[in-house]
Amino acid sequence: MATQQLATWAVDLQYANFTAPVIAAAVTSLYNWAGCAIGGYQQTAPGIALNATSPHFGGPPTSSILALANDSTQTDAQIAAFINGIAGHVDDYDDTHLATIIHPTGTVASALLAVAEWKGGVNGSDFLTAFIAGVEAELKLGLSVWPQHYDVGWHDTSTTGSIGAAVAVSKLLGLDVPTMQQAIGIACTQVIGMQEFFGSDTKSFHIGRAAQGGMIGALLAQSGFTSSLQGLEAQFGWVHVVSTRENVTAEFDTLGKSWEILSNTFKPYPCGIVMHPSIEGAIEVQSTALGKGLNMSDITSVQARVNPETLVLTGQTDPETGLEGKFSVYHGIAIGLLFGEATPSQFTDAIVTNSTVVALRKLVNVTTDASVREDEAYVSALFKDGTNVTQHIDHVIGSLDNPLSEAQLKTKFIGQASLVLGEARAEKAYEAFTNIGNMSDVSTIAQLFAGANGTSNSTNSTTSASGSSGASTLYFVGPNGVASFTVIAMILGIVALLL
């Protein structure tokens, strides 16, 4: 029975079972998520969720919202898991298991950290063991129903993530096999997340709610709450209800033999991963064009040839919000050409609706080619003088064949975390999470970078995706050199300079 098989493996799992690369992958996954969760609080969704729930729900303040690790701010474990889950995913900057397009860390880590803080006394090796158990559970489960489960419209990060969170928390609580089976069953019945909600706050809600649901499943089971011992494989269980195909037993047979966490990847751009090759191609086209003394405002057409999944998942032609822009390859190419980068600052309402960005976006034509891999793209721009600048991205940065370096991952973390914490505290947070495996008590981790936040809550922030942004620069290059214009969303009149 698959549910028993998974629970038995997780209960028996020991830290000594892991190779050094598996441990390193787990630590990298955790600190990449933590940076996303801290920086993601700048968006409006986490603050809205906290303000909507905290006055009406909540128990003793035991657990941290990472972005609010100032003045010992805490909330109850449920709300902490919920808000950190939302914040860690709202920028679409988190990790990706490419074989399933699952973002595995957010659901598991959000639940696990909240419980570790509430419980106290959890050392780093036990925390990592529980974390890896949860991640492997959700990814093996995701593989067992891929691609049919995703193709029908489920958001597999959250549908599998609640089960991964239940396994992880159950492991941390020391539940036995039958009790963990009950926890898995309770998580199964809370299946959540549909692709209809991509491009809205509800996409990140999926992750927060899945983290919360998995955690609740483990706590209920620990207290004797009953479910089904065959929640995954029964005729009306999870795998048969959410998919037309499954091979869950075969996938679970590989638990502990092949580690899916080793195939986890980390995003260089905060948007749908299938559009990353096109963005990188656009950035390289811009760089080449600048070197030739070309003016980006002289572009007359842009062509991109991509894998078919790119348009399936990120084919929005006319996004109207920053969140929608994260699922528009047309927007990604436009900002790559104009800004020479793609950071959270380029995925705001102000940039998505900027007239210069919109005008260039309308010049982008995207065609699909099944022979083009998902980490590959061809991008070309034609200029008024007849010059055609073309770039081929063979393996996009952040892919398995071209991963982000440790230095690049640190830069990403500091860039995100410093938005909220300031650079000095961001460095402390990086140090804390990169050393999480050596901690004697993980519940103290937020205290290692606690202090007064340098930036306000996202509901008042000038960097939120609901209509404002940080400073970004567009480059218009003419024969006499580079002229740059700073775009600050709150200064509305600046748009005139870009026309």
TrEMBL record:
Domain MmgE/PrpD C-terminal: 269-429
Residues in MmgE/PrpD N-terminal domain copies: 4-248
Pfam families, alphabetized: MmgE_PrpD_C (PF19305), MmgE_PrpD_N (PF03972)
InterPro entries hit by this protein: MmgE/PrpD_sf, MmgE/PrpD_sf_1, MmgE/PrpD_sf_2, MmgE_PrpD, MmgE_PrpD_C, MmgE_PrpD_N
Lineage: superkingdom: Eukaryota
Spans traversing the lipid bilayer: 474-498
MF GO annotations: lyase activity
Keywords per UniProt: Membrane, Transmembrane, Transmembrane helix
Entry similarity comment: Belongs to the PrpD family.
Stated name of the protein: 2-methylcitrate dehydratase PrpD
